[in-house]
Design goal:
Shape of chain A: elongated
Largest sheet of chain A: 9 strands, mixed
CATH superfamily of the largest domain in chain A: Bira Bifunctional Protein, Domain 2
Number of strands of chain A: 17
Largest interface: A-B, 95 and 95 residues
Low-confidence stretches of chain A: none
CATH topology of the largest domain in chain A: BirA Bifunctional Protein, domain 2
Strand content of chain A: 25-35%
CATH architecture of the largest domain in chain A: 2-Layer Sandwich
Oligomer: homodimer
Mean pLDDT of chain A: 95
Order of helices and strands of chain A: EEEHEEHHHEEEEHEEHHHEHHEEEEHHEH
Amino acid sequence: MSAPAVVSVRDLASHVGEVVRVRGWLTNRRKSGGLQFLQVRDGSGTVQAVAKKDSLDAALFEALSGLGQESSLIVDGEVAADPRSPGGVELKLTGGQVIGTATDFPISNKEHSSGFLMEHRHLWLRSSKQAATLRVRARIIKSIRDYFDSRGYICFDAPMFTPAACEGTSTLFEVDYFGEPAYLTQSGQLYGEAGAMALGKIYTFGPTFRAEKSKTRKHLTEFWMIEPEIAFATLDDVMDVAEEFIETIVQDVLADCEPELTVLERDLDKLRAIKRPFKRETYDESVARMEAAGHAFKHGDDFGAPDEEFITHGSDKPVLVHRWPADIKAFYMKRDPADDTRALAVDVIAPEGYGEIIGGSERADDLAFLEEQIAAHKLPKESFEWYLDLRRYGSVPHGGFGLGLERTVAWICGTKHIRECIPFPRMLYKIYP
Amino acid sequence: MSAPAVVSVRDLASHVGEVVRVRGWLTNRRKSGGLQFLQVRDGSGTVQAVAKKDSLDAALFEALSGLGQESSLIVDGEVAADPRSPGGVELKLTGGQVIGTATDFPISNKEHSSGFLMEHRHLWLRSSKQAATLRVRARIIKSIRDYFDSRGYICFDAPMFTPAACEGTSTLFEVDYFGEPAYLTQSGQLYGEAGAMALGKIYTFGPTFRAEKSKTRKHLTEFWMIEPEIAFATLDDVMDVAEEFIETIVQDVLADCEPELTVLERDLDKLRAIKRPFKRETYDESVARMEAAGHAFKHGDDFGAPDEEFITHGSDKPVLVHRWPADIKAFYMKRDPADDTRALAVDVIAPEGYGEIIGGSERADDLAFLEEQIAAHKLPKESFEWYLDLRRYGSVPHGGFGLGLERTVAWICGTKHIRECIPFPRMLYKIYP
């Protein structure tokens, strides 16, 4: 007799009445008389497998009864409808095989310290919430790429090694590049601008690095960023894309990841509310709101976490804040023709306290202005000659934004700690495993 | 009157008879009496715009006649069918506007040295072959992700900062990580194995780094690699996936990128031939073929470029070579139960001299064996404790492979130099722009 077909736990519901094979790991087990109820996960989901002493090989029944958490096994059984179980089915075992035993798996259902869990990240990944978060992350990545791929953007990978800093040198990681200093990229944007001049619309999507000495729940030293860049785009175009983009990824996740969001106990109504239009206001309007409400804030400063929470307070959607004081924004941003002290920049602030998830702008397209800015910011001009060339040869209005992937995953999953939103987080003093 | 709708050059053919707007750059221009023929590229393609002195504003006609290569402009015109032009249409100008002038664009149709072109990579990207190569690259990336996403694999980003070397330390880039040494990843595989145990089937897809002091046309210091890892997979499963995967991406590119492949003068029949099954042979069979043909090769050595060319000579498809001498392969590979001197490894060698594009294996799943290997290779065991945990807690047979993205792009595009297959290549002594 040939072996039953291997079926993913996630697909079991369409195999009711069939005998199938599931390959996975034991997450939990309970006995009741001549019955064993085994929780088996295969990475796509978890199913209850019922072993009945009378109808199973005695040696196998015995082997199963001694198995520790996270032992690996193959189980064959008939798929039976069971409305009480999360997936709607259970498995009535007819056979199986133990593959690899495990005893004293370090992570149990009891409370562990976050330090302990991070030291065991390679095993913690198997926990249902961690696995669900990473499945949502993968769905978000697909949604991001589909959004741009289906609208004529070309995926354009910016380099990791760069000769110069884009936004200050204090948070750069330095690498010995065959005897010369090189830096790990903080943003693919400047390269993306060259790409937009060649290909019209591009997006970069890769790791970026910040050597920030902050140990907050919102900081990673290595995180993924997506940065579209669009030739002939104005700030309004950039804001339109950002809005539609955010709505699309949230609604895609809602449509496909309800099982994961349920594991994560996410309030789905909060996500259903993320529909355009979002609120847009200028920085000055934001500050006026703070002043009117008695929220302490110094006009001209950048927003901190409490200010971001104020901005979205009472709103169930992201808020777009635009036209920022130019002197707290990057050198490459275009000034507002109506007010030279303002940069044509936008931050998108997520609701529920998740803070800034997008920063974008229309880029300066005038050569003389950019040369002044590079001098004023004391940046090494020779490192930016290539970037200035983009204004020397057929300059056009253009703009784009950067979205931090992990912050977006944290928001959509309702997860407080960004470190759970990437498989192996890198933080201050933390690179193992 | 409102402005005409902006249309991508690639989409013009479905707007014949309409007046549309194209925004882009001038790549070439020729005059004939009262006519100007302007080649305008917008990143999606190039169209000929015909300016007729009689029917155009005199100042605009004059401005156009003085425009240098790569000046940016907006042109409005009626789309007319023109079977002689590559896109099947041309544009009869009715209006327009010069946006940014350019004079003395550094790259012309004449021959330039590769050093010069690499120094001007940010502008060279605008050349038709470079842009076509990057569009094919983007299509390949999409195909790779779609292949895995649609088959239940979870995208699982491995870290860039790692505490230890996966395959020897001589080609590692070292980073100062807050006072501790860290290394840039050479492969996401070991992390991917942890992911497969948590999620069943995963793929990593990100930059990897090799500080190789070789200046060949096949080496980059920074390149993108895709690495699927599959729980419960054997070497045969890995080879089946690799074959189907390669066939899928080549056929996807053929289906969608004929305009780009035509620009690149690629022989499409060579790509049409990439259909399963591919030839599979053991390392020993490969060597026997070499010996029989009088091709000089030392049994037990790794293949060099001439050997790889021999292996695929006379074949129009990739060749899978499996069961390699264990002592020239990585420590984590499982041994062949039928011959302990052989690793259950496979290399996939592309035809036409493009060499190895995939390396894969079934992984060692036995704790004691792996501990021996780590000792024998003098690797620091403490750095691998987490990896050994994967064998301590529910070990399962598993395997996967790594595909080098840029080599695959080079092969599919028929491009000799891998440096043209990534937007900003990083090579020995080369990180600008």
